[in-house]
Write a structure and sequence with these properties.
It is built from 14 helices and 7 strands. It folds into 2 domains: about 170 residues, no CATH class; about 140 residues, no CATH class. It is about 65% helix and about 10% strand. Strands 1, 2, 3, 4, 5, 6 and 7 form a 7-stranded antiparallel beta sheet that branches. The termini are far apart. α1 runs antiparallel to α2 and α9 packs parallel to α13. By secondary structure, the protein is an alpha+beta fold.
């Protein structure tokens, strides 16, 4: 191994590099020993039990043998780079003040492709002020006058490679919050989640009040409205200042209720849109099958009905967007009734959340949860989630949905033009030997 100074001030390194899979006699010898061991077992005991363990051991030995020379090269390069970094790093630290120091360093080799082609060799250094310096080791291939050598670039640069930074940077809440603060997508997602959660909570509170205090709340609301109307009517006739203040005070619940409804409206539109979709594409086919079974037109079991319902509902909701769009525009309670301006926006929001890609994601999520829970109960408790037939029908429906989705995707790659196909068929029929 030798090193020298180049004209540009950088340091060069040259050494006898080891090549992958050198000394092939080693792996051949190991293979022969393993084969002889297996043959000895067969000769003396008449079995081949050791073949599989020996084969697994041979694979590990082969990988180690093939990769060891590269590890040896990396060890030499890393040690040499670390030594040169030690000689020069203190000059870089002076630029950042006397309180800045090195936290840690890491040797990084960038590769590409399945063969691990080396594209860059670096020594990255993390400083106490969270700045990451990057020293590069450039490879120069052999030419007519010189052998191959490595060039150590003495002047580091501030590392901006995200992969390198992730390998050496410490976890920092400050850095995480800064990244969140600079991401518009994260901001919008957080705003949406907060807004939707507020809307959903308001809907939940309203349902809780209706369920737990249905009769009492109904009587109380009616009484409150009647009292409010009576006082407001008296105030219109007498124009009393005190009654005017009372009317303003009594109107606060109406203002708060209006604000409550406005805030809950987006979540209501999203939830009712999906409920409408489930009712149309899942419950209607199930009701249809049940009705046909009752009148004796068809005779199919409950698992079969569930299987067909899941298939029809999944395929219609994802692969027939025009049908879903027409149903929303014509029959959904979220459609534009043309009574108020917000109804057009309400319909637009409903169509947006019912986009095929959104529905496909939710279907995959629901199927995944059902299959995961079903698999857990079957493995852990040795019993199905619902019944064995129903669990199987849901699994088979998901498989059919996956197959149909993939078939639709692959159909775009099919080279089959109807016009050209018909032309070739006619030519085949009309062409004769003269």
């Amino acid at each position: 191994m030798k090193s020298w100074k180049l004209e540009n001030g950088n340091i060069a390194l040259s050494y006898d590099r080891r090549e992958p899979m050198e000394n092939k006699w080693i792996i051949v010898l190991v293979g022969v020993v393993f084969i002889l061991s297996a043959l000895m077992e067969y000769i003396f005991w008449g079995t081949w039990y050791s073949v599989m363990p020996l084969f697994v051991i041979f694979i590990f030995v082969f990988v180690y043998w093939a990769d060891y020379p590269c590890k040896h090269n990396d060890k030499i390069q890393m040690s040499w780079m670390s030594h040169n970094v030690d000689l020069r790093l203190h000059n870089e630290l002076k630029k950042y003040g006397k309180h800045v120091y090195e936290v840690k360093r890491k040797y990084v080799v960038d590769t590409k492709g399945t063969y691990g082609l080396v594209t860059g060799i670096f020594m990255i250094v993390l400083l106490s002020n969270d700045i990451v310096l990057e020293y590069e080791l450039k490879y120069h291939g052999p030419d007519e006058n010189n052998d191959a050598y490595y060039e150590f670039v003495k002047n580091p640069v501030n590392c901006d490679n995200e992969k390198h930074l992730k390998k050496i940077q410490r976890f920092s809440w400050k850095r995480l919050m800064k990244r969140v603060a600079n991401s518009e997508k994260i901001h919008l997602n957080l705003i949406f989640i907060c807004f939707f959660m507020i809307s959903a909570c308001l809907i939940g509170c309203l349902l809780w009040v209706v369920v737990h205090f249905s009769f009492i709340s109904f009587i109380g609301i009616i009484s409150y409205i009647l009292i409010f109307i009576a006082i407001k009517t008296i105030n219109k006739k007498r124009k009393n200042i005190v009654l005017g203040k009372v009317v303003q005070l009594l109107s606060l619940p109406f203002i708060m209720s209006g604000l409550w409804i406005k805030l809950a409206q987006p979540a209501m539109v999203i939830i009712f849109s999906y409920l409408f979709l489930v009712m149309i594409v899942f419950f209607l086919p199930l009701i249809l099958f049940q009705g046909l079974s009752l009148i004796g037109f068809i005779s199919i079991s409950i698992p079969t009905k569930i299987f067909l319902t899941f298939i029809i509902g999944s395929i219609l909701s994802v692969h027939c967007p025009n049908i879903i769009k027409k149903l929303v525009k014509n029959y959904s309670p979220m459609r534009n009734w043309e009574n108020h301006k917000y109804e057009a926006i309400q319909e637009e929001l409903s169509l947006y959340v019912l986009h095929p890609s959104n529905i496909c994601f939710f279907l995959y999520f629901i199927y995944c949860m059902i299959l995961a829970i079903s698999g857990y109960t079957q493995i852990q408790n040795h019993q199905p989630l619902i019944t064995a037939d129903i669990d199987s029908s849901i699994l088979k429906a998901f498989l059919v949905f996956l197959a149909y989705t993939n078939m639709r995707g692959k159909s775009k790659e099919v080279e089959l033009d109807s016009k050209e196909l018909l032309t070739k068929m006619i030519k085949l029929i009309t062409t004769h030997d003269t």
